[in-house]
Amino acid sequence: MKSFSELKEYQNEISEKKKNNQKIDDKPEIIIGMGTCGIAAGAKKIRNAVVDVVKEKNLDVKITETGCIGMCEKEPLMDIKMPGMERVTYGEIEESDVKRIINKHVFEKKIVKEFAIARILE
Questions:
Q1: Do 90 and 80 contact (CB within 8 A), yes or no?
Q2: What contacts 20, CB < 8 A, 6 or more positions away?
Q3: Minimum mean pLDDT among 17-21, 28-32, 60-64, 117-121: which range?
Q4: Considering only CA atoms, which of 47, 57, 60, 63 is closest in space to residue 103?
Q5: At residue 39, what are phi and psi to the nearest 5 degrees?
Q6: Looking at domain 23-120, what is its CATH homologous superfamily?
Q7: DSSP secondary structure letter of residue 18
Q8: DSSP-assigned letter for residue 106
Q9: What is the DSSP string of 37-60?
């Protein structure tokens, strides 16, 4: 946002969506576990691979970093949250797995079962 008027316009849009019970953010979200355990397991490489795939595919997704969620033995972790679908946590992934997971999950809306370790209903 570059101006106060843009901020007000955005606030009005959010207020209108709340009134109509619409979801506020219906963009896919990729969440990378960046706690110390994740970083030690290679989360920075995962984050960089995610950014590369998002740029390469020109995806309109939100990339979020989060702290430790308590599954240190499964690091590095990456969650994908698609509008209208359950959130899926992928674990013990490598840099080379990121593109395939994003292609399958974001484009084909299919869970990559070999790396899926949790599903979260929201």
A1: yes
A2: none
A3: 17-21
A4: 57
A5: -60, -45
A6: Glutaredoxin (3.40.30.10)
A7: H
A8: I
A9: HHHHHTHHHHHHHHHHHHHHHT--
| Closest to 122 measured CA to CA, from 35, 23, 32, 50 | 23
Give residue 70's Cα distance to chain centre: 18
**Tokens coding 25:** 């953010």
Contact present, 82 and 95 (Cβ < 8 Å): no
With residue 120 as reference, give the H or E element that holds it: strand 116-120
| DSSP, residue by residue, 57-96 | HT---EEEEE---S-GGG-SEEEEE-TTS-EEEEES--HH
Average pLDDT, the chain: 88
| Structural domain boundaries in the chain | 23-120
Cα 11 to Cα 28, 62, 88, distances in angstroms:
21, 19, 30
The distance of Cα 36 from the centroid of its chain, to the nearest Å, equals: 19
Distance separating alpha carbons of residues 72 and 41, to the nearest angstrom: 9
Q: What is the pLDDT of residues 92-111, one digit of tens each?
A: 999 999 999 999 999 999 99
